Every structure is written in C-alpha cells, then in structure tokens.
Amino acid sequence: MCQINTDPMKSQIGILKVVVSPDFIHDETSGDVIINEGTSAYLKCKASGRPAPRIEWRREDGTELIVRNATSRTRARTYVGHILNMTKISRSEMGVYLCIASNGIPPAISKRINVSVTFPPVIQVPNQLLAAPERTAVTLECNVQAYPRPINYWLGTAGEMLLSNDKRRIYETMAMPYEVQMRLIINSFNEEDKGTYQCVAKNSLGAVHSNIRLYEYEDDGRVKKYGLAENEQKGQLSNSASEHGRRPLLQITLRTPRATYHTFSENHIPQERVPSCTAIMIAITTITFPLLVLNLFLI
C-alpha cells in the first residue's frame, strides 16, 4: 500500500505477484533406469515453480511413447503428468526419455532419463540352408537381439573360432541399441568350405547359437549334400522347418551368378518365375524324401 499523509489521507493499494521459473526437485525425479524386460518401471518427474509447472514426457529420438492406463495402451508423441507408467516394458521402449517442465516463465527445463531394458540373446537367421557354386562369394547372416550388448562370434565347420583374414571377412552392423547384424563373407567358396557354421551370442543373461549349413551347388543344378537346418537356443534343439507351422517347411537357398527364382508348392508345380535374380529358393511344404523335386537334392 502506498500512503500520502495529507488531509484527508490518500492511499493506493497494489498487488505484487512473484513468479518463479521451474526447477527440478531432484529427490522426487527419477535417474537412469535398468530394468528386465517384462517387468514394470515408473518414471517420476517433479518440479517446483510459480505457477506450478506442467510436466511433459517425450522420447529423445522422436518415436512414439506407449501410454498405459488401467484398460488399454495407446501411442502418443507426448504425455502430460508427473509419472510415466511403463508396465510390462518391452525392448522396443529402450532409449532416452525427456522430462520437460514449463510454466510460461522462461526458461523451460528438461531432464534426460536413460531407460535400459535387459534380456538374454535371441538369434534370427534369414537362411539356414545355403548352397553356392565354387569360386563365388557366399554371405552367411545372423541377426542378434540382446542387452547388455552381447559378445558375438562365428564357429567354423570344425568348431574353431573364426577370425577375419584373406579368405573370409567378418562384419557387425548395429541396427538398434539392442540389435546387431552378423555377417560372415567367404571369398572364393570351395569344397573345403562346406559344412555347418555357427553364429554365437553371449551376454550376462544367457547364451544362444544358431546353425547355418553350407553346401556346394553344381553346374547341373544339383546340391551335393542335403540335410535339415537346426536351431539351438538356450539348450533347446528344434527344426526351424517346423518351429511355428503345423506342417514342416523345408527351405534351401541356392546362389548362382545368374539364376531364376522358383517357388514350388505342395504339388511341386512352379508358382512364380522372376528372371534375372541372383537366387533360387525351393520351398517344400511336406518333407517326403522319395519324391525329391526334379532330383535337385539327389546325387
């Protein structure tokens, strides 16, 4: 109040409003989180200020959040609230989350919270049976998902650990924070390179390996040797041919310098031809060895 001591006295009342920019309350704000896949986490973010700050969540890489409530899950770019519920978290939710506090009084503030989701290794193999002609380059591929990041390596046909040299090259490409593509390139394929190769992945939560069988493809269109690919994960052996389907599926990929792509159905009638491709894939939905399509697997 401002007052002038006159006769009569004069006064003026004014209102002073104090505003305060946001500031995080660190004891009530989450730090970095490491959590097992399938369990639950709750990210908390609290800030002081006047007026009370608005708390907004978003992912640093711009991907959508999974917003959960009592009955459903939805995807959104942002979420407003002090607590971000992450019930039954999945590996796809791994990453950096931003908590942004603002109340119209600059500056707005943000905090980075890194969420790491741990799980044992899983291997996916695009082609578990490969055949190639001599003196060509052959590429074996395995896709590994794991966190913490695993140790990955290749085993040769005699069970020896393979290293890069003039004969073969080994590459790893990071596709996601938890996914790595393993590639083994064999230069100038020959008789000695035939056999079963293993890609192996290990981290602190487990180990897994998957087999890739490599055969020689002859000029007359025959494969010298034939067998089922196997996949072993966590000590469990299973035929990849019948892992998910009700009826077994056998697949073999043949690589030649110039070839045509054929797909054979159950009655062995060609369904599709695409010229000038670099691979022949033959899929047989019923494994019946006496029928042997076009004697392709018979020598």
TrEMBL record:
One of its GO terms (cellular component) is plasma membrane. The keyword Signal applies. Residues 22-116, 120-215 form the Ig-like domain. InterPro entries: Ig-like_dom, Ig-like_dom_sf, Ig-like_fold, Ig_sub, Ig_sub2, Neural/epithelial_adhesion. It is found in: Cell membrane. Its main location: membrane. The chain crosses the membrane at residues 279-298. SMART domains: IG (SM00409), IGc2 (SM00408). Keywords: Cell membrane, Disulfide bond, Glycoprotein, Immunoglobulin domain, Membrane, Repeat, Signal, Transmembrane, Transmembrane helix. The keyword Transmembrane applies. Gene3D superfamilies: Immunoglobulins. This is Ig-like domain-containing protein. It comes from Photinus pyralis (Common eastern firefly).
